């Protein structure tokens, strides 16, 4: 009953209804965080825009499809969660929040992202999973400080070549898409530490031996005929993952030569074999 009442009240944009939705929130919270997740919101409570020093704003799991232009007043915002809503397009006002470091947009109905997203040059983490993206928007490649990109459970078939510009990118999550080939651009990103291409349509994996920063590759649930070759110490999750990863061939050669040299030195340093003992008396030699 409580959720039903909140859903009805959320439709009425009067100050009294807004106050009910905000509960006891009358002034700026000491922790500079407002969490209105799962509040049955259909309209954004405008009073929140008066909290100019707000750093974290969670609006997850509501019924929002738009945001007011007054949101631009929150210029200190660093974390904004808009996941599990009804956004078909990202409101342009979000792109004016230039201090954002983490932006949650998962589980909406997004088909694209506005070019103004490039204004968010402080963005480190971007969540886009479970949307309706058929291609990764080129504007993502302009987020120069991006470290983590979650783009799983969309309908991606390839990645833009410009993605290699993101030299701060360390983890990329692409599970549950429509990739039929391992994205070639990732082969030119040696700084990547985690690559997740689980649950795609990849039938063959190229060697990943040269990706010096790689620590984990997840490739399970693909119709592949081979496991990706990785350097020693890189963890693999998928078919044949329990097999020993391919070592660096140069290191393997140096190790083999060192072992051969050790064996030769040990043989040269070994004392000569003692002469055979004479046969006991009474026995023929």
TrEMBL record:
GO molecular function: actin binding
Pfam families: LRR_1, LRR_8
Segments for region (Disordered): 238-285
Subcellular location as annotated: Nucleus
Record keywords: Leucine-rich repeat, Nucleus, Repeat
Gene Ontology CC terms: cytoskeleton; nucleus; sarcomere
Predominant localisation class: nucleus
Signal peptide range: none
Bias-annotated ranges (Pro residues): 271-285
ATP-binding in keyword set: no
InterPro entries in the record: Leu-rich_rpt (IPR001611), Leu-rich_rpt_typical-subtyp (IPR003591), LRR_dom_sf (IPR032675), LRR_domain-containing (IPR050216)
Source taxon at top rank: Eukaryota
Biased composition (Basic and acidic residues): 239-250
GO BP field: cardiac muscle cell development
Function of the molecule: May play important roles in cardiac development and/or cardiac function.
Name under which the protein is recorded: Leucine-rich repeat-containing protein 10
Protein source organism: Monodelphis domestica
């Amino acid at each position: 009953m409580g959720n039903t009442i909140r859903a009805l009240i959320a439709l009425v944009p009067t100050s009294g209804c807004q106050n009910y939705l905000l509960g006891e929130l009358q002034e700026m919270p000491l922790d500079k965080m407002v969490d209105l997740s799962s509040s049955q919101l259909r309209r954004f409570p405008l009073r929140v825009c008066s909290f100019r020093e707000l750093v974290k704003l969670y609006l997850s799991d509501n019924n929002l499809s738009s945001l007011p232009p007054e949101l631009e007043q929150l210029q200190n915002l660093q974390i904004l969660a808009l996941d599990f809503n009804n956004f078909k397009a990202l409101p342009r006002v979000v792109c004016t929040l230039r201090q954002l470091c983490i932006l949650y947009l998962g589980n909406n109905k997004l088909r694209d992202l506005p070019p103004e997203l490039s204004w968010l040059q402080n963005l480190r983490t971007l969540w886009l999973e479970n949307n309706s993206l058929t291609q990764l928007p080129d504007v993502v490649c302009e987020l120069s400080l991006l470290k983590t990109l979650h783009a799983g459970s969309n309908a991606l078939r390839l990645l833009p070549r410009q993605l290699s510009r993101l030299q701060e990118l360390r983890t990329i999550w692409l599970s549950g898409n429509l990739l039929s080939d391992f994205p070639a651009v990732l082969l030119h990103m040696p700084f990547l530490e985690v690559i997740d291409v689980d649950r795609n349509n990849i039938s063959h994996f190229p060697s990943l031996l040269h990706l010096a920063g790689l620590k984990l590759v997840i490739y399970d649930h693909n119709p592949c005929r081979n496991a990706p070759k990785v350097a020693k110490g890189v963890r693999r999750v998928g078919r044949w993952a329990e097999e020993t990863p391919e070592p660096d061939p140069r290191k393997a050669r140096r190790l083999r030569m060192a072992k051969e040299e050790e064996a030769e030195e040990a043989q040269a340093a070994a004392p000569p074999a003692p002469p055979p003992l004479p046969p006991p008396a009474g026995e023929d030699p």
